[in-house]
Amino acid sequence: MVRVLAVDDEKPALEELLYLLRSDPRVRSAEGATDATEALRRIGRALEAGPDGEEAIDVVFLDIHMAGLTGLDIARLIAGFARPPLIVFVTAHEGFALQAFDLKAVDYVLKPVRRERLAEAVRRVRDLAEPATAGTATEQIPVELGGVTRFVSVDDIAYVEAQGDYARLHTDEGSHLVRIPLSTLEERWAARGFVRIHRSHLVALRRIDELRLDAGTTTVRVGRAELAVSRRHARQLRDLLMRQARG
Questions:
Q1: Which long-range contacts (CB under 8 A, 24 or more apart) does 164-167 make?
Q2: Contact by Cβ (8 Å): 206, 241
């Protein structure tokens, strides 16, 4: 079960959010703060008490537009703490999803908050806060679908295709265009088993079904897609696949 601090300078909105959070059986406790000063004081006190203290906080649900410091400002300050809590943004504005991604937010919930959508955010938090019982923590990528922000798990991505300053994430269900350079994702996801096979493609090593060498040209099959492997990446890729096969 997770311990929550919700921050919103509009009292009715804060009370509604706390009501919904406290009605979720996965939430152990949910307390509120109406400004940045109170929120940061509570978080600092929780960190001093330690992860098992009565005042411990697993996640902060943050409104973005507030008087004084914004939710984004608070998130940046929290990121500098030794053991920062997780962050979920709760906002009426769709235009901050990329900044939420940069700040490693777990989720991005739009107002008015629906109970089902909030329950999904709590599930994501629980999975990250309790990895021993809920599975391995995984990064979530915000994508826009018909004006609605959704989060795609990195584990669901088979390969990524460069499209200028954008990248197209390919999953089994479809593809999503995000404004993140391929080079940024290559650096960020190297530890998750993604490898560069071409200037235009980044592939999840575990999703490669076949490596083919034909007349000096190397390709890989990832699901139904066949992708070219550049000469400079071919040897490294073969070595990685052989190492993976040996376990």
A1: 167/202
A2: no
State how far the Cα of 45 lies from the Cα of 29, in Å rounded to an integer.
16
Specify the DSSP element, H or E, that contains 136.
Answer: none
Q: What one-character DSSP code corresponds to residue 245? A: H
Per-residue pLDDT tens over the stretch 108-129: 888 999 999 999 889 888 888 7
Which H or E run contains 158? strand 157-163
- Give the side-chain half-sphere CA count within 13 A for 195: 22
Beta-strand relationship, 86-91 and 59-62: parallel
Digit-coded pLDDT (tens) for 134-143:
444 567 888 8
At 55, the amino acid letter reads E
Long-range contacts of 117-124 (CB under 8 A, 24+ apart): 118/17, 118/20, 118/21, 118/24, 119/24, 121/61, 121/88, 122/2, 122/21, 122/24, 122/26, 122/27, 123/26, 124/88, 124/151
